[in-house]
Design a protein that fits this description.
Blueprint (H helix, E strand, L loop, with lengths): L1 H25 L2 E10 L2 E9 L2 E5 L11 H13 L2 E13 L8 E12 L13 E6 L13 H9 L6 E5 L6
Parallel strand pairs: 1-5, 4-7
Antiparallel strand pairs: 1-2, 2-3, 2-6, 4-5
Amino acid sequence: MKRYFRYFVEIFVLYFLEYSSFQSLLNMKVRPSVAIIEGDKVLLMRYRYGEADVFNLPGGNTDPGETLVETLQRELVEELGIEIAVEELLLTGEVILPQQKTDVLHCVFRAKITQGIPVLNPVETSSLEVLWKNIDDLADLEMYPNVGFMLQQQLNSSSKTSTYVGKIPQRWH
């Protein structure tokens, strides 16, 4: 009898783990962003959370029926007034914080500006500033998602393959 009970418990635990992982996936939001590089600088947006300056790569949340590339093109026109050409995927990873309602899968692409000069549109973003930062300074910045070091490595490498970074260690503000 004990063997059957143990077998039942093992099946239940496996089912629960698979189901909870599936539920987590269903609740995961996808947020694409872009690394726009000019020379040795990358375009960032600065936000203020409490006493902390937090830097983001430009991007945003998808609307229903939108591809990731369409999302990026729309968001950058709305928030910065620029048109972009989205290139290769650089890295992906998840931010999983118990304080957030949903987990977030971040997808960072390389992109180039094809038209316009980045200027904040305060109607579309709560960002305080758009600025160019040295690629070599990314690891020292507080970013959301916290991919500064990984992105710096990817941009300084000659590799053209994207990197899955897994769970991104993120500070909560």
